[in-house]
Amino acid sequence: MTIRLAMWSGPRNISTAMMRSWENRADCEVIDEPFYAYYLKHSGKVHPMQGEILASQPQQWQQVVEQLLAPRDCQLFYQKMMTHHMLDDVDLNFCRELKHCFLIRNPANVVKSYVQKIRDVSDEDIGINRQWRLYQQISAITGENIPVIDSQDVLRDPEGMLSAVCEYFDLDFDTAMLSWPAGRRESDGAWAPHWYQRVEASTGFAPYRSDPIKLTPVQQAVADDSMDAYQQMYAKRIIP
Which Gene3D superfamilies does the entry mention (predicted)? Predict the structure, then answer.
């Protein structure tokens, strides 16, 4: 039976590197941000490569759910989920069929990275408040104590954190998760040319860096508005 693991993250949060890590396991297939086209179609947002994204994926959430739950010929099916893509009309009851883990990052770091790709940023764009609401909703639906991992902890100790996640889901840790070949993947979303340059050049998780963060007042306000939600999840994080 296939284990379907949904990794719930906001943007600019090592989520693609995490997808690379799991995809490098011989027993794992991945899907990249399956609700992206649905989100663009129904939110009114306009993103880089809009046309390519809309043409590459189902635009109705029901079709996406069918895709996520369809039979798979693999032990693991890793689903890279973006929390800001989950609009309120999505029926989350399909989450009963999945295992879940939440990947978080300090909001100031997220905003700093996001505005390097898209100048304007809002609370909805970074998805951290939505991430906390989803954590509560999915926890209630599944009745599970869903694990949380912080990107800072992953970068400081990739093996320890990935081992802890694997142990939580009764999976064997595979050292192949610690490095991968550089380059693009067939599994990468249509938006990869705009967003994935750094991860395409990578061969593993980058070392943790504590660089100064300088935000405009508007950007800082977005980060501040998300801080309580981040801290609520941070308090639940796995500590190996």
Answer: P-loop containing nucleotide triphosphate hydrolases
